[in-house]
Design a protein that fits this description.
seven-stranded mixed β-sheet; signal; 35% helix; 493 residues; alpha+beta; Endonuclease I-creI; Immunoglobulin-like; five-stranded mixed β-sheet
């Protein structure tokens, strides 16, 4: 919390009193029958000074208590002149600013002497007793320019604190009245954020009010598809972008951020979710052209109103305020559309040879084609044109380039692509009459015309169980082949 700086016009140049409330003009504290005229009629303000009178009484005749009451009354008179009013809306900071001022002022009154010639001074004091009641009156003068400067300073603190909430809320109301619903929602959330971190007495009420206004603003926004069911070839751009329109009952909404979410295939063929933001144009329309798809199959792309920046700042609101935020987030979740699209691959149309060698845990070929069988089963079920060819005798020790070159020479007139690789046993265990076999390998697909590697599985593993060693090995190799086949079906261009 910031502390009010000590103002020079209150503290600088002051000399500690030799006694309380010495008279600056006469140097004495008058009492008795010579009641001064200013007790009933305070002096008129001049061009340089503003005059204040404070009065206090004590029914027990305690003059010191009456003086304290007069001091408080004098301070209250000056505070009223400042024109600031502490209410439920006043922040703690603004209250502290005013409290610090009045505390310093009260201390100054108590310590002022006739020698004081600064911005504030006690001009006269008068005390009397009537029927056992002690009455004390204090006349003070304040330098007008200094007082007006202090008035402006304190009022600015009050206004600044109120404006942090009421300013954005008022802007939101204005935008909502003109149909600018998205911008209105942003302003309401800004006001809600200010209220959530404010120390005003009714901050929770202001927070809830602005969150309710934000929900009404979001509710007024609609987003609709302008096209759907798009298609593209794998690794080829879409022929057109995904299009939607943002509007309200009043018409199109421009410059509205729209979050686009779509899928790509990352390393090791793992799905990755990409998020981008586009803005609606003057006609309310948005268009998004994703990068060429790197997978095969049916997918969806979604668009929704993006208020993430404004909402993120509210994530740390107190727990008691969080339900309002959750309700808004749920509403925003309904303000979206999904597009269906299909990614196709010409891989199904290309005749592809399969050349895979299964080897045992000693590195020797098993003479069986379990992996190739599983792979053929997976690809054939999805319409691929695949067939097996006899593996080269030196397949295990040959480079990829050599295998591709030999395949192109041997059967390039029959096949356009080749699937090749070696799969071996990486772990073999027996226990309780059951056998566990783990196989691993890296299977690749190459174009025989260009020599390019179109697909590489990376080293993959598959484990299978069996009642005997042979059944466990056969199951492991075949399941490995099916796993790689499914991956190719979704990845081959």
């Amino acid at each position: 919390m910031r502390k009010m700086r000590k103002t020079s016009f209150i503290l600088s140049g002051f000399i500690i009193l030799s006694f309380l409330f010495g008279c600056a003009s006469s140097g004495s504290d008058r009492s008795g029958s010579d009641r001064p005229s200013w007790v009933m009629t305070p002096p008129a303000d001049t061009s340089d000074e503003v005059f204040f009178v404070g009065s206090g009484s004590n029914p027990d005749g305690d003059e010191a208590a009456a003086r304290q009451a007069a001091t408080s009354d004098l301070v209250a008179s000056i505070t009223r002149f400042l024109g600031v009013k502490v209410s439920a809306d006043t922040t703690v900071e603004a209250k502290d600013t005013l409290d610090s001022f009045t505390t310093s002022l009260e201390q100054t009154i108590k310590e002022s002497s006739k020698a004081q010639i600064g911005d504030f001074r006690i001009r006269d004091t008068y005390s009397e007793k009537q029927g056992g009641i002690a009455n004390v009156y204090i006349l003070a003068a304040y330098d007008k320019e200094s007082l007006l400067q202090e008035q402006a300073r304190i009022q600015a603190v009050f206004a600044e604190q109120r404006e942090a909430i009421s300013g954005p809320e008022a802007e939101g109301d204005s935008l909502a009245s003109s149909g600018s619903w998205y911008r209105a929602a942003v302003k309401y959330l800004e006001a809600a954020l200010a209220a959530s971190s404010s120390e005003v007495d009714n901050a929770a009420i202001k927070y809830e009010r602005n969150m309710n206004k934000a929900r009404r603003a979001v509710q007024a926004i609609t987003i609709v598809r302008l096209n759907d069911n798009l298609s593209a070839d794998m690794n080829k751009p879409f022929g057109e972008g995904f299009r939607a329109k943002v509007s309200s009952e009043a018409g199109a909404l421009s410059d509205v951020p729209v979050k686009v979410t779509y899928k790509t295939l990352g390393r090791n063929n793992r799905t990755q979710i990409q998020v981008e933001t586009v803005k609606s144009g003057s006609d309310g329309e948005v268009e998004f052209l994703p990068p060429p798809p790197d997978f095969v199959g049916k997918e969806t792309l979604s668009m929704g109103i993006d208020l993430s920046d404004a909402l993120e700042s509210l994530e740390d609101v107190p727990d008691a305020l969080y339900p309002q935020l959750e309700a808004l987030e749920q509403l925003i979740g309904t303000k979206g559309v999904s597009f269906s699209y299909t990614v196709e691959s010409r891989a199904k149309e290309v005749a592809t040879a399969v050349m895979i060698v299964d080897v045992d845990n000693g590195g020797n070929a098993t003479g069986r084609t379990e992996t190739a069988s599983g792979l053929l089963e997976a690809l054939s079920s999805q319409g691929f044109k695949v067939g097996t060819v006899t593996p080269f005798s030196n397949l295990q020790g040959s480079s990829d380039a050599a295998v591709i070159r030999n395949a192109a020479t041997s059967f390039g007139n029959q096949y356009g692509r080749i699937i090749f690789g070696t799969v071996g046993i990486s772990d073999f265990r027996e226990g309780d009459g059951r056998f566990t076999v783990k196989v691993s390998g890296d299977i690749k697909v190459a174009d025989l015309s260009s020599g390019d590697i179109l697909y590489s599985s990376g080293t993959k593993f598959k484990t299978a169980l069996g009642n005997n060693a042979q059944s466990a090995m056969s199951a492991a190799f075949k399941q490995f082949g099916k796993m790689i086949g499914d991956s190719m079906a979704n990845s081959l261009p």
